[in-house]
Design a protein that fits this description.
Elements (H helix, E strand, L loop, with lengths): L10 H22 L1 H10 L20 H6 L13 E7 L7 E6 H17 L7 E4 L7 H12 L3 E3 L6 H10 L4 E4 L1 H13 L4 H4 L4 E5 L5 H11 L2 E8 L4 E7 L6 E3 L4 E6 L13 E7 L10 E7 L1 E2 L11 E2 L4 E2 L4 E3 L2 E3 L1 H9 L4 E12 L2 E10 L8 H19 L4 E5 L14 E3 L4
Parallel strand pairs: 3-4, 3-5, 5-6, 6-7, 18-21, 19-20
Antiparallel strand pairs: 1-2, 7-8, 8-9, 9-14, 10-11, 11-12, 12-15, 13-14, 16-17, 18-19
Helix pairs in contact: 1-2, 4-5, 6-7, 7-9, 10-11
This protein binds 5'-O-[hydroxy(phenylacetyl)phosphoryl]adenosine (DLL).
5'-O-[hydroxy(phenylacetyl)phosphoryl]adenosine binds next to helix 5, strand 7, strand 8 and strand 12.
Length: 432
């Protein structure tokens, strides 16, 4: 089943719809967002210079840094009274990236998430066990509203508490699991160790997994260990949250909901738009967002676009799974972390220097993060109590500022190897 007729529109009808929506968006940002008004003036253009959807390449880019520079609400195009929801992700200098939604935006989000569920074969007969985190992260509530929109029964279990999650999945007869892929495997591992029979004790038929880069091997493992259909979902808070694209039953590429999100692929160095099929950075323009309309957002995610018809009948362009990022952003159990954020937190703590290394690895199927940092010369390495307090203090600061659980290892001054060129700040031992 296909949720909305627009998913099967002929390309020319889709382009016409996109263009009229783009024009509305341009007027909205030009008139209401000083940042865009100034960017247009710098480029010597006005909304009327954009005469077709292809002219989108004349528009300025938007980056995460622009959102941070206008923290918290400087990029919003509506008055606070029209905003009904705020989400955010942690930010580089302690300040988070803030996104907002009007009632209309919530409607769009519910609509695209309903398409995701329908595309994955989920309907009112299903029970969705939602293990994406609830709160400021868009995963939990975004998935939640979509499941309700298609009339499924939603179990808002959020993250953590693995044993209890398994009990609820079994007793409530969950047919759909929504979580990060690594958490789905972790659940399977714990279920086996607790003596569950994965195929017979659970009624799962499919899962909708995303929020972190995942290898084909890991996806196959999730599908086979649970005996379910694997659907991949992609999204980012700045654009809407989960629900920018999703894979259907006929292809492992992800249909982008093009009537709401206009995708381009650019060369991240030259910023030139690349043709269909070529790999580069995904750039998205929102076509219907009201609170936070965004032009040409540089996602940092590397993929390619496939416009060929899909056997499922949907005409919207498909993106390949994300193959990497153009920046140094790490995703740890679904939480985005930039090394500069860790550095900022460390810089606020006394007794340590800024010689540090971040080591990402896997324990079982979950990500683990270790932050190794040198203490200052005046720190007595033989005072176990003092070192212990310092270590716990840093761990707490990382948790409360960046929402990451990290193991902090304090080491002697000058013990972290120095490199001749750029400091090696991140060692990522996870395979993807
Ligand atoms: O991760 C939204 C989301 C929630 C997507 C639940 C899917 C499921 P952010 O926290 O803003 O939003 O992180 C966005 O996560 O730019 C990608 O780098 C990464 N990401 C999201 N989905 C995928 C995926 C949510 N399927 C960032 N594969 C994005 C690889 C993904 N990376």
């Amino acid at each position: 089943m296909i949720w909305s007729e627009v998913e099967t529109f002929l390309k020319e009808d889709l382009r016409a719809l996109q263009y009229s929506r783009l024009q509305e968006t341009l007027l909205r940002v030009y008139n209401n967002v000083p940042f865009y008004n100034e960017s247009f003036k710098k480029l010597g253009i006005t909304p009327s210079d954009i005469k077709s959807i292809k002219d989108i390449s004349k528009l300025p880019f938007t980056t995460k840094q622009d959102l941070r520079d206008h923290y918290p609400f400087g990029m919003f195009a509506v008055d606070q009274s029209a905003v009904v929801r705020i989400h955010s992700s942690s930010g580089t200098t302690g300040k988070p990236t803030v996104v907002g939604y009007t009632k209309g935006d919530m409607g769009v989000w519910n609509e695209v998430m309903a398409r995701v569920f329908t595309m994955s074969g989920v309907n009112s007969q299903d029970t969705v066990h939602n293990a994406y985190g609830y709160g400021l992260f868009t995963g939990g509530l975004g998935i939640h509203n979509g499941a309700e929109t298609v009339g499924a029964t939603i179990v808002p279990s959020s993250g953590g508490f693995t044993s209890r999650q398994l009990l609820l999945m079994k007793d409530f007869n969950a047919t759909v699991l929504t979580s990060t892929p690594s958490f789905a495997l972790h659940l399977a591992e714990v279920a086996k160790s607790e003596g569950y029979d994965l195929r017979n004790d659970f009624k799962l038929k499919c899962g909708i997994f995303g929020a972190e880069p995942t290898s084909t091997g890991l996806k196959e493992e999730v599908a086979s260990v649970w005996g379910i259909d694997y659907h991949e979902i992609y999204g980012l808070s700045e654009i809407i949250g989960p629900g920018v694209s999703n894979s259907c039953k006929k292809s492992n590429k992800l249909h982008i909901f093009e009537d709401h999100f206009y995708p381009e692929i650019i060369d991240p160095d030259t910023l030139e738009v690349l043709p269909y099929g070529e790999e580069g950075e995904l750039v998205i323009t929102t076509l219907t967002k009201q609170a936070l309309p965004i032009l040409r957002y540089r996602t940092g995610d590397i993929t390619s676009l496939d416009p060929t018809p899909c056997r499922c009948g949907r005409t919207h362009v498909r993106m390949s799974s994300i193959v990497g990022r153009v920046d140094d952003m790490l995703i740890v159990n679904g939480v985005n972390v930039f090394p500069s954020q860790v550095e900022h937190v460390l810089s606020c703590v006394d007794g340590i220097s800024l010689n540090y290394q971040i080591i990402a690895d896997k324990k079982g199927y979950l990500d683990i993060l270790e932050v190794m940092v040198e203490v200052t010369n005046d720190m007595p390495m033989d005072s176990i109590g003092a070192l212990d307090r310092l270590q716990k203090n840093i761990q707490n600061e990382l948790l409360s500022n960046l929402y990451i659980k990290a193991m902090v290892k304090l080491v002697e001054p000058r013990s972290i190897e120095r490199s001749v060129g750029k400091a090696v700040r991140v060692i990522d031992k996870r395979r993807i």
